Amino acid sequence: xxxxxxxxxxxxxxxxxxxxxxxxxxxxxxxxxxxxxxxxxxxxxxxxxxxxxxxxxxxxxxxxxxxxxxxxxxxxxxxxxxxxxxxxxxxxxxxxxxxxxxxxxxxxxxxxxxxxxxxxxxxxxxxxxxxxxxxxxxxxxxxxxxxxxxxxxxxxxxxxxxxxxxxxxxxxxxxxxxxxxxxxxxxxxxxxxxxxxxxxxxxxxxxxxxxxxxxxxxxxxxxxxxxxxxxxxxxxxxxxxxxxxxxxxxxxxxxxxxxxxxxxxxxxxxxxxxxxxxxxxxxxxxxxxxxxxxxxxxxxxxxxxxxxxxxxxxxxxxxxxxxxxxxxxxxxxxxxxxxxxxxxxxxxxxxxxxxxxxxxxxxxxxxxxxxxxxxxxxxxxxxxxxxxxxxxxxxxxxxxxxxxxxxxxxxxxxxxxxxxxxxxxxxxxxxxxxxxxxxxxxxxxxxxxxxxxxxxxxxxxxxxxxxxxxxxxxxxx
Length: 477
Ligand SMILES: *[C@@H]1O[C@H](CO)[C@@H](O)[C@H](O)[C@H]1NC(C)=O
Ligand SMILES: *[C@@H]1O[C@H](CO)[C@@H](O)[C@H](O)[C@H]1NC(C)=O
Ligand SMILES: *[C@@H]1O[C@H](CO)[C@@H](O)[C@H](O)[C@H]1NC(C)=O
Ligand SMILES: *[C@@H]1O[C@H](CO)[C@@H](O)[C@H](O)[C@H]1NC(C)=O
Ligand SMILES: *[C@@H]1O[C@H](CO)[C@@H](O)[C@H](O)[C@H]1NC(C)=O
Ligand SMILES: *[C@@H]1O[C@H](CO)[C@@H](O)[C@H](O)[C@H]1NC(C)=O
Fold this sequence. Notes:
Pfam families: Cu-oxidase, Cu-oxidase_2, Cu-oxidase_3. Residues 27-142, 152-299, 366-471 form the Plastocyanin-like domain. By secondary structure, the chain is mainly beta. It has three domains: 10-138, Immunoglobulin-like (Sandwich); 146-324, Cupredoxins -  blue copper proteins (Immunoglobulin-like, Sandwich); 339-476, Immunoglobulin-like (Sandwich), CATH 2.60.40. The protein is built from four helices and 28 strands. The strands form six sheets. A six-stranded mixed β-sheet has the order 10-9-12-17-14-15, with no helix packed on it. It has a six-stranded mixed β-sheet with strand order 21-20-22-27-24-25, with no helix packed on it. The chain has a five-stranded mixed β-sheet with strand order 11-19-18-13-16, with no helix packed on it. The longest helix is centred in the N-terminal third of the chain and has 14 residues, at 2-15. It is globular, with a radius of gyration of 23 Å. Residues 82, 84, 421, 468-469 line the site of one 2-acetamido-2-deoxy-beta-D-glucopyranose (NAG).
């Protein structure tokens, strides 16, 4: 009898499913994240920074979003989650949903199946730099590094602009105001949505530090003074523990978990730096705006904070090349490609605006979200009469082994992101080597998988995935 009771308890513990239910309203809030300028930002339920979403693998998340902005549409994307079977909850407006108008609500509902570090953000009209973005953290009861981890830290890095996105986009696109097509220059770098941030460390403890790049445009380098990092996760994929490093590089949208072990001594505090990569900006090498933000590892509150952040000698070396990382599960290189897609990416003038294009098509938001067109028209999905002339859709067969070649004809390096899947990075050229000659040289036996990867300026990238998530697709550059 007792045994039965225990058994029942054990069973109910195992089978009980927990749920995360959130009621969020997007609202305007006044904030001053970089300490230099107060401006309206988009917060959640009157709060800025917006809160992190936390869930455990297997949990169901139900989030009802109400648009209380009054004067702008919105919509919300859960970056990196595959939304397998729940593609209407993916969130990009024009692709899986209509823009959410003022006063309207939408409910996103999905079960989290992937552990790791993600983020959420508005996916409507380039809106997230105005504040609507935050961490999405999935706890893993089976984390293979659990026995090494005593605690967790979360660090977001981002560029920050004093002007609002609608004010930035107009002049950026304008051929007369911006003949060089130069990207708007940020006013500063922020850490955890603040000019600075501090982590209180306990001596000798090891922290899984989740670093999330929520930038609009800039890549970031992060360095902790006299504290080594070993990479254990990128974009939700556990890696074989990397070599210790003191510098990491993240493009916008990328995430990384690193192990950092606190020192035994509490006799001083240490600084760390989040530095934007200025080589991505047209002002380089003369960028004078502060592109660096400094944070602190605090061991002893009675001791001063260091006056200067750590320095590093180069923006292009000294960090671990993510191409060399090995996935923890040792999933081998996908072979037997059944479908190859080539994406020629370039910047130029389209519709008399500064724009980017893929295969000579620039993105024009469809009136009907693409997912709905695909579901209602099936094999007609690529018909320009249905999608519009500029949709540039590729239709995949279920379980195709897809190889995507990205030739970057732009001088700048750019992150490539795909929804619904992560992908194996099988080839990445240095700058200047595009286009790909259709010959794989020495692909890794166990390629790293990510959902965002950087393609170098005038370089190419080859990645592979299996089309095993019907209803989900989309590449962003
Ligand atoms: C909407 O209202 C906010 C808050 O007053 C303002 O800061 C923002 O510029 C407005 N957006 C547009 C597109 O006018
Ligand atoms: C930024 O950090 C400072 C110092 O820790 C704190 O006083 C301030 O409230 C923070 N600002 C925001 C917007 O969180
Ligand atoms: C974040 O991503 C942007 C865009 O790729 C990049 O310019 C910036 O350096 C990244 N920041 C970090 C800290 O990785
Ligand atoms: C940011 O940090 C880098 C690396 O130490 C340094 O070279 C650069 O001068 C700093 N930039 C600014 C504007 O302080
Ligand atoms: C795009 O179209 C223009 C004009 O039709 C042509 O000159 C150019 O070569 C095309 N680019 C690509 C990558 O196909
Ligand atoms: C989606 O779910 C199906 C069925 O369980 C599975 O075969 C497939 O691998 C999943 N795809 C992704 C991207 O998770």
